[in-house]
């Protein structure tokens, strides 16, 4: 089959705030080929990603993403590799291209799986889709009492593991942060798995990040996530050296498989967290999973949005039995749930897994999309380059 | 002063082709504060960069770039650092932000210099702006005969050094490439400095890149530039190990100072090439220059466009006497020359230097901009978010 069309749908909640919740908007991708459609989702700023899809040519290595995808042959996984390489080369100077292409690449896998009647994880070479233990992913409260409430709620909902992120952590003193870690531990009880995500708040300040380690140890935190910005390889490595009990986690900011591999090799992280909606799709995430296995590092998905994104993000490590933690959007905004008819609900053991159905195994809820659709129009020199497409 | 406005002007040649020439379009930035204006230039895809400036908020760490800049105080260099950190933190999930902000950051330095009546390099802590030896930067010909012609032309124009880039190199055999290297050497004569830029053509294939080393040695090439993609730290390091006589050069793809530092530390490059229009502006480039000095690596600017970009890119290493090679746009498109009234012409010794005048020391040619202006309109839910501003 040949790739006939790429449609980008920008969805948004009626009101978007500056809270850390990334499920307030979405960019859903539909690709058509051979009478089939595949879907994907960019975990990215919608408008700049749309612009990177359709912008005018700047020069040979700054081409709009669509020019490397439309009309291409798609029959095998090698075709996806070839298209990915073409995008990387022809858009090397277009920074947003990796985020833009991520959703397209997912859709290509979805299409290929549907056309071959295989789930994506089979096409990636896995024999099984193993169950994963989802952790409940929420934000720290503004006060420890709210953090405590959220921890209790995650247990009430049946989650054994919970991740607390962002909020006031790192903005005040280490002892203020300690109160939040203690509150989360109290709410999760002694046997709950506690994960902490500090959302790059320490920039590249190893000292400040190190000051939180002791309180994390006291609260029996499993991992200390994203202390620094995505390029701070040396700072990651230094913190890992100082933090023997607590493992460092990171990788969601990777927009190339090498970035995540370097976090493993030079940053000495213990958990590598990949968002298929940013790293360039499912194939580069699989490369990272392979490297994690070879390096004794645990692979984890990064997903804070829809169950379409969740299925895509489970594929690269579906067959890795021992890599069993999985990020599961705990309190997404309504739009994230509205995107799909299929929801990957935890089974009776409270575990989730990548679907057995062909492609990504997710049915899209077209009516759901309609309710959140953002109408975009981009004109250049009087010519319309983009208008929100018909569903 | 407070930052009152940010205007982005998208310029383009009437016809843009897929050749490697990055001067076919431009994105000029004007920032106003305290009755002054400063100018900068993003070396980036214009439309996605505009979108990253003005897009709707996605969430707390995916904010449009303008929200971290407009209204900010600007009186000292620390203010620029503070604004840069705010952009990095509040737009951490907006990949295009680094390219978008690069031109703004230059304009902030230009503004600050004008307001303090100092050239930017003084504000960066340098006492002198040393002369640099420009190399003539051109593309390889389709045939060795054309490469030969271009090499002769560079000598006729009085350049002692010339860089040949892209074209057919790496797309055929190593012996075909050898003919081009020989042709370039012949045209430059024995005492000319020959630089080779392969524009990421080898992806991450160390073997294929290594096959070109012998022919480069024969042609007495000084550096082998950008063999691999911007994140291929290990491949850079491996090639450097295999290439003892020829130094490896790279860094133009860096969109964060750490990326360039890692190319030095892990990629073992001998020349680090920074484009201030991509790396986040002049300050992160200065960090790289400091690290280059400390590491015994030579800093070089990357500039293929206007003399506004050229002045900006000279500032971070203006005071480094021994880092004297400088990329100089050899055959830019007419729009790149039309952007400025000031052109940094080589002096009687055929050398150029960062201007002594306040700020970036470049007068913008408003009429010149008019001739190439692209009219852009972006509407979201019926609201106009961007229209090409008045000059």
Structure, described:
The structure is a homodimer of 391-residue chains. Chain A has 391 residues and is α/β, with parallel strands linked by helices. Chain A has two domains: 3-119 and 366-387, Enolase-like, domain 1, CATH 3.30.390.10; 123-338, Alpha-Beta Barrel (TIM Barrel), CATH 3.20.20.120. Helices cover 35% and strands 19% of the residues of chain A. Chain A contains 14 helices and 13 strands. In chain A, the strands form three sheets. Chain A has an eight-stranded parallel β-sheet. In chain A, helix 11 (282-295) links the parallel strand 9 (271-274) and strand 10 (298-301). The mean pLDDT of chain A is 96. The interface between A and B is large, with 68 and 68 residues.
């Amino acid at each position: 089959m040949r790739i006939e069309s790429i449609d980008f749908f920008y969805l948004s909640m009626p009101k978007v705030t500056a809270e850390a919740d990334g499920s307030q908007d979405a960019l859903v991708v539909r690709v058509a080929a051979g009478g089939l459609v595949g879907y994907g989702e960019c975990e990215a700023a919608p408008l700049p990603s749309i612009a990177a899809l359709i912008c005018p040519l700047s020069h040979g290595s700054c081409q709009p993403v669509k020019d490397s995808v439309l009309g291409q042959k798609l029959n095998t996984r090698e075709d996806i590799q070839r298209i990915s390489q073409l995008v990387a080369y022809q858009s090397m100077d277009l920074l947003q291209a990796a985020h833009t292409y991520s959703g397209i690449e997912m859709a290509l896998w979805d299409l290929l799986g549907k056309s071959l009647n295989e789930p994506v994880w089979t096409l990636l070479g896995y024999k099984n889709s193993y169950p994963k233990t989802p952790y409940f992913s929420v934000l720290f409260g503004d006060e420890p009492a709210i953090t405590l409430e959220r921890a209790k709620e995650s247990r009430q909902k049946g989650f054994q593991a919970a991740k607390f992120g962002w909020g006031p952590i790192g903005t005040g003193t280490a002892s203020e942060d300690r109160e939040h870690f203690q509150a989360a531990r109290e709410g999760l009880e002694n046997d709950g798995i506690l994960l902490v995500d500090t959302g790059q708040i320490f920039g590249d300040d190893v000292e400040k990040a190190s000051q939180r380690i002791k309180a994390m140890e006291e609260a029996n935190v499993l991992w200390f996530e994203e202390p620094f910005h995505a390029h701070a390889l040396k700072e990651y490595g230094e913190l890992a050296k100082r933090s023997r009990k607590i493992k460092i986690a990171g990788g969601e900011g990777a927009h190339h498989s090498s970035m995540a591999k370097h976090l493993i090799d030079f940053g000495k992280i213990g958990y590598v967290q990949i968002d298929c909606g940013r790293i360039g799709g499912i194939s580069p995430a699989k490369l990272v999973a392979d490297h994690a296995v070879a390096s004794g590092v645990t692979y984890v998905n990064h997903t804070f949005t829809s169950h379409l994104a969740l299925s895509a993000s489970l594929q690269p490590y579906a067959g890795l039995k021992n890599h069993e933690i999985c990020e599961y959007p705990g309190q997404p905004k309504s739009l994230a749930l509205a995107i799909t008819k299929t929801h990957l609900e935890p089974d009776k053991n409270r575990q989730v897994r990548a679907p057995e159905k062909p492609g990504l195994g997710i049915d899209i809820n077209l009516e759901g999309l309609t309710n959140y659709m953002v109408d975009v129009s981009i004109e250049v020199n009087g010519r319309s380059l983009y208008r929100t497409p018909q569903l």
